[in-house]
Structure formats: structure tokens, C-alpha cells
From TrEMBL, chain A:
Entry keyword Lyase: no
GO cellular component: plasma membrane
Protein name, UniProt field: Autoinducer 2 import system permease protein LsrD
Compartments, record wording: Cell membrane
Pfam families, alphabetized: BPD_transp_2 (PF02653)
Region Disordered, residue ranges: 1-20
MF term (GO), any: transmembrane transporter activity
Main location: membrane
Parts forming coiled coils: none
Keywords: Cell inner membrane, Cell membrane, Membrane, Transmembrane, Transmembrane helix, Transport
Automatic annotation (TrEMBL), chain B:
Keyword Transit peptide appears in the UniProt entry: no
Protein name stated in the entry: Autoinducer 2 import system permease protein LsrC
Subunit structure: The complex is composed of two ATP-binding proteins (LsrA), two transmembrane proteins (LsrC and LsrD) and a solute-binding protein (LsrB).
Presence of keyword Oxidoreductase: no
Topological type in the membrane: Multi-pass membrane protein
Species: Geodermatophilus saharensis
Amino acid sequence: MTVETATPTAPAPAAPGRRGPTLPSGSVITTFLVLFLVVAAFTVDGFASTRNAGFLLLDVVVIALIALPLTLIVVTGEIDLSVASTVGLSSAVMGRLWLAGLPLETIVPLVLVLGAVLGAVNGFLVTRLGLPSLAVTIGTLALYRGLAFVVLGDQAVADFPRAWTTWAISSIGSTGIPTVVLPLLVLVAVTAVVLHATPVGRALYAMGNSEDAARFSGIDVARTKLWLFVVTGVVSALGGVYWTLRYGSARADNATGLELQVIAAILLGGVSIFGGSGGLLGVIAGALLLGSVRNALQLVNVPSDVLNIVTGVLLIAAVVAPQVAARVRGRRRRPAAT
Amino acid sequence: MSAPTTRTPAPLPEELAAPERTGRRGSALVHRLFVVRELGILAALVLLVVVTVIANPRFLSGQNVRDLLLSAAILTVLAAGQTMVIVTRNVDLSVGSVLGLSAYATGTLLVEAPGTPVVVAVLAGMAVGAVCGLVNGVIVATAGVPSLVVTLGTLYAFRGLVSLWASSADRLQINAADLPAGFKSLGGARLLGVPVLFLVAVAVVLLVGYYLRTFRSGRELYGIGSAPEAARLSGIPVGRRVLTAFVVNGALAGLAGVLYAARFQTLDTTAGTGQELFVVAAAVVGGVAIFGGSGSVYGAALGALLLTTIGTALPQLGLDPFWRDAAVGALILAAIALDRALQLRLAARLRGRNARRDR
């Protein structure tokens, strides 16, 4: 939903041309984020400390990580609900292989390959068999989570090497910023460049706006989507590896329900669920806003379950507000036109 | 989402008015296909039961079957409501949270006023659900926002509401001992040996099925799901119908909450968490197209029964219960792949028919 640049002459429907897919589409949510951070820093005790900033970022890392490839998928008009189950299955396999005595240096690449396979299964069912991605990934959400339990049962594997687990929660010098933020920033930059500055990125928006038009203009829609699902699988598996190290525990039920938080961040960031519009800046801001609001409310002792209300209301407000704004604008324009 | 558009006997005036005879014969073909589709799930269910019984004859013992039907009852009621919503090309992900809110509300009512008649408690739970459905429906129908997003939001919000209520009332859990005996007896009550809760579910399925099949407004739900724009142009009050579907679905999720309270009798704020997945799965396995316009509530009910049976049959077959979720996932994938294959074949056959006629 592009909210900005409504010229009074043209009725601007998410223009896929030069204006639509540029970075500023997340400016509204970014403004919200900055405002919230400033207000919270002055009103919430302990919010602005380096220690707290570290905790906040650690909680956002996996959500932001998985949101990167998933944003690309949503932009093309598809969805992948199986990401959190992929995290869980990766974590379970990691634990099982560790029990089998393999070193982590071997396990991690194997788990990433597994992620690619899981993503490829989704992609194959969606692009080759032509099944709706929503239904397919509801199926694999259950399937992958089930396999995670088959692999590891209800046990927890927690004896990973200290060097790895402490690295996962370490921070850069005395700044309080987690070390993992650096590789994450690299991935954010790569994804942003791909989405906003390459023909591939433009092709993704084109697919989301009109698949047929994209196909007629020579884009291999099926292959592109297949690769997006594969990448999402790999990144989710990476998220599973990190999740396991960060909490120092491989469990089949790791990250259950995380898919909803990732999708909430993406939609909050202004990406249309129907595809074709939105930008990466907004998604990162969305993930940070969700994380900050939760963090601030926890600091003022709001019970963690109640935070759900805030998440839900934010999500609905984020999608309803642009619609209402568009309608108001439309009403104002009409008398002038006639 | 790229919707592979499903062709159904949509009761749109222009389609009815167009080529008379092929139209009717075509829709008879479509109808037969859906009967086949439902028989397919039934066959899968029977096969599963037969295999399990061979492995373990006690699977069909009275108590086991009653437990199975009790578990299936709640999912079936949810699936019936969800079918109405999905048929209109919408989805309600908040049903698990609505169930939790309704169960907690009913429990609180019965603890605070133990003399409340069971009927009033049931109606109260349904009313809570209907209000939740109204919230969903109003946002979806008036703001023109995708239901997937709205109900993802209310999934969080309603669950948060239960937690807020429970923590502010300082009653995080409602125990069986606090509930009046009259209500508790509902959970184990039987009529001719069949659990009453299951009969409630059957009644709900028959009512919703009759409504969707017979009433004009019920048929219009299919029209809306098949082609929202065509439905609007042909004068169907799309917003109002969709709103109604959400309210009814909410009320049924509320009823499921009451059934949950009666069955489990120990309630906390997590009741029904994650149910949305199984509900949508039951509908999809039952042949309800995720992008609307086709499927029946009977199929969804059979889907719910099949999913529940898998859960109880696996241990009897000597398989680890951990296989359940994996089996459910595989079943969903098989069901949508089958639907796609049937749809392609149907399209080919209808084309063949028209080609013959044109010659």
C-alpha cells in the first residue's frame, strides 16, 4: 500500500512504475518507530539503557532475519506460513546430529541444506503443481513441525559448546549491540539492493501486481518463485541454528507461532498481503516497532500475554489506516473533479 | 495470492441465463464430483478405522469411540463455521482465541452465578463469540482489508483480552470443582449411548449445511467466493453477507468454547491456542477451496473427524504420537493436490462437452 505521493490529478493505485517500489514506502511506520523510541526513552525507566537495547535487538533478530526473504515472497503475492516450523525442524535436526556426535562445523551446513530442501518442497508444490501457497504452507507448517517432533521427540539438547552459545548472545565491545546484528545488517543490505535496485526486484513487484503481465514480459515467474521459497527455507534454517544457539537448547517446539510475528512485522511495515507493493525499510521498522513496544510494556510490568492486544491492534491499525486515508482523500478529490 | 480460480455451480444470474442445457448438465457433473470428493474422505476415514481395528480391535470399544466423538465435536463445530467464511473467499484465523475467550467467559459466569441454567450459559458463550465475529466482520466488510490480516490481528487481540481479564480478575484458572454440577454433567451426558456434545456438533453441521444449500443467501455466499465483483454487480449485498458469515462463525466458535468448557472443565487462558490451524486444515482436507466458492460443510465435518481420528489411531497402530502433526500436514498436501487434479479434469471434461456441442 503506497501511501505517499497522491497527486491530485491521477487516482494513484499502487503504481508499479518508477514511484511504487522505492524505499520511502516505509516512511510512515519508520516515523512511528522513531516517535515511539523517543517517547519511550523519556517515559519508560531503563528503556534507553545499552543493556535493554541489547535485549530488544536479540529478540528482534530472528524475526527480522526471516522477514527478509518472506517479504520478497509476499511482494510476489505468495505467502509462506511454514517458516517457524522450518526453524523448529532445523533446531531438532541440529540437536539430533549433535547427539550423534557430529561437530557443529559439519552440522550447520547440513541444516542449511535441509532448509533448502524444505523450501524447495514448498516451492515445487506452489509453482509446479499450481497449488495455492497459503494452503500448501499451512500443510507444511504442520508437516515440518510434526517431523521436528519425530526427529527429536520432546527432549531438549542443551550441551552445545560454550564458545558458540556465548557468541550468539555476545555484544560488540561495550556498546550492548549484539554481535549478530552485523551479519544481519549485511543481509538486510543485500536484500534491500536486490529488491529495490535490480531487475530481479522489479520483476518481483511486477509478479505481485499481475502475474500474467509479468509472464508476458518475459519473466520466468515459476522459477523465480521456486528460488524465493528455497532461499526462505535456507534463511529459516539459519534462523533455527541461531535460535538454538541463542537459547542454548535444541527443541522440536522451538519458535512455535513465530510465523505470525514475522508476518505481523511485514504487514505492519506496509507490505500489501496481495503483493506488488511495500518496501524493506518498512518491514525492518515494523519488526523493530513490534519488538520495542513489547519491550517497553514489559518494562512497565504489563503481563506478557496482554501484549498480544497491542500486537493485534497495531497490525489491524496498520492495514486499516491507509484504507481510511485513501477513502478520505478520494472523497476530498471528487468534488474538485466534477 | 495467485488464486487458481475454482469453477463451481455459482448461482449467478448471468450464468444461469446463458446456455441452458449445457449449463445444467455441467453443474450436475460438478455436483457429482463434489459428492465423489466427500465419499473420498469418507473412504479414507473408513480405511483408517479398518486398518486400526485390525491392528488393535479395542479401537472400536465404546469408551474409545465416545472419546473420539467428544474430541471431534469441538473441531467439527469450528470447521462448520469456518466453512461459511472460507466459502466467501475469506478466512477467520481468530477462532482459537474466540474459543478461549468464550470458554473463559462461560466459566466465569458459571462460577459467579452457579444457578445459571445450562441453556443461558450456552447462549452467553455464543453471544461472546458473535461479538468477536462482529468485530472481525465489520473491519473486513467496511474497511475492505483482507480477512487474513484482520483475523491475524484479532487472533492476538482476543487472546490478549482473555489474559487481561484473567489477570485483572485474579482468576488465572477455573477448576472443575468451581463449576456447577449441572453444567459438568453436560460433558459426559449421552443420548442413546452417543455423547450429547457430538450430537450438538451434528445438529450444527446439518443446520449450516441446509442453510448453505437451500437458502438464497446461503447460495449467495458461494457466488461471492466464486467471483466477488460479479456478485456485487448482480446485486448481492456482499458486505452484509460476509459480515453475517463472520458473525455466525464467531457464534459457532463461541459455542465451541462452551463445549470445550463442558468437556475439559479445567480452563485457563490458553484454551484453544493453535486451533485455527486444525480448523482450516479440516476444511481444506474436506474439500473446501481455500480461495472460496466451493466446498461443503459436510466435507469439512468429515475432515474434522478424519483429523481427530488420525490423532487417536496413531498410538493404536504402534506409531509414536509425535507422528500426528506430520500426518496431518501430509494429509492437507494430499487433499489440495487431489482437489487440483479433480479441478483440472473437470475443466477438461466441461471443455470437451462444449466442444462437442459446438460441432
